Amino acid sequence: MELALAEKTACDSLASNFIDSEAYEAFVKKSVEDLKSRGKSLEGARALDLSCGSGRLALGLAEAGCSKVVASDAAGPETAAFQTLLRGGIVSVSLQIEGEIFEKREVTWKKPSRDRVSFVEIRVAEEETAGVIEKLRTASGGDGYDVVTLFCGMEKSRDPKALVEVARSLVRQGGTLFIGYTGAWNDRIAPASKWVGGVGAGGPTVGAALESRLSPMGRCEESGWDLEVVVRDTARKTSVAVVRVETFVKAEGAYTNGVKTGGEEDVTMSGAGEAGTETLQWKEEGEKVAMYERTAMVQVYLDMHFSPETLLGVENFPKACARECGDLARELLLDSSGGPRGGLRVLELGGGVGRFAFEAARWASEVWGSDYSEAFVKAARGVKETGVAEWGVVKAGGLREEKRACLKEDLGIGEAERERVKDFIRVDATKLDLPPSLLEETKTEAGAFDLIFGGNLIDRLPDPLSFLQKVGGMLKKDGLLVLSSPYTWLSDMTPREKWIGGREVDGKAIRTESALRDLLLKEGGDARGPRCFVEARPPKNIAFVIRESERTFQRTQSQRTVWQKTQ
């Protein structure tokens, strides 16, 4: 059975969970070890997987020996595909490669473990909690479950507290509850009043709130572990969560039949704003705010650019790109004697909050940074003026941990580099509307730029073709255009008819890499392009990581391409 295009996002998640299944296999393995350490086993156990999503964990529990596994979640494309898999053992899904280009994959699961898994639809936010509990207790065929798992489900629920109550009530006497969480609450999904911990400066942590709400169950302090969960969004982009897994045990005689009330005190956001723990929410007051103008987004990008930390083992992206551009300039931009040209003039487009510009100033004489976002430009100017970057990293809930980096002391960027960064300016890259005086300078060979860098830019422009048609006019005769992009085309950023790649035309998949060649190369096949470049170096992947919260990240491969002007 092949699923409709409208369901592909959910099916990408399902396919990723089964193809990149290490996290689920590790979860089952650690659960088995945890149970064994307490003289228990999954063999013959009845298990409940709450917020089952793709069902990968439920099937893993059955394969590990559970005699009965009930998987439960709200109805949706992902659970529909899971049910198809349960019925027939196979489902055809699609992995997103780029834009609207997908690769078909078949997900299969053999008997007999599949026969031990059933699906029960629940809607915790809409149904009475007591009714959900009774429905799932009936599905257990007894008085509850030996093992209940709630893995990465709280943060996706519109009522996390009710979901935790369901989990608590369905663990039978002597049973075990495994809860995996990141604490990355989102007020667009559930209001803060329904979060489990992490609300306000004086509120309990997620772990402490769980311990309170799950009473009289006992928390096994020595049994907690961290687990990296990777979901493939596209061929180049993954979402990464470092999930904290906690174990709770319901002792003999501690069984409660009913809905728990009380628990940790419901706190509000009134405690937020104290030093070091400011609440950082994604909602903005008043009219709709463009994504890259949001305060929360500025904070995320300041962290990406200026954090001295190495996140997920990946080098800082703007720094790596600037070093790459410096190496390319030394190799390809030569003076009359054949040596590296001095006095280089560099323009960065879509530069975010400025790290590339400061790093490029190590080898260039003059650097201009730019972005379309006024908030990004303001932040970059602030760093240039003060020599300090300050931001916050979202911890559990809306709490924010303050971070700070000095350009000189922490990043080795001195006064000379700051001076060589002439300014950060707001530029629409589709129009290349530089300030009049600077624009006039680029019309002369002496005033044109030696190198223009567009980092993760091309797939975020409303009209990328317009940019490509104009950008060559600002380069010297042998100047370099260096682009990097993961090619994650989105229709709310770029109208579909403006995509230069990532779609099918007359049944043929058009990839962005090949579309760039057709548009830019002298012998390119697309007459709409400037066709005044040669491809100076083969494409190269440069990884980057965006930290959304202390436990959630985006890890992406951006493809670097190098184009040298020939006329």
Automatic annotation (TrEMBL):
<dbReference type="InterPro" id="IPR029063">
    <property type="entry name" value="SAM-dependent_MTases_sf"/>
</dbReference>
<dbReference type="Pfam" id="PF13489">
    <property type="entry name" value="Methyltransf_23"/>
</dbReference>
<protein>
    <recommendedName>
        <fullName>Methyltransferase domain-containing protein</fullName>
    </recommendedName>
</protein>
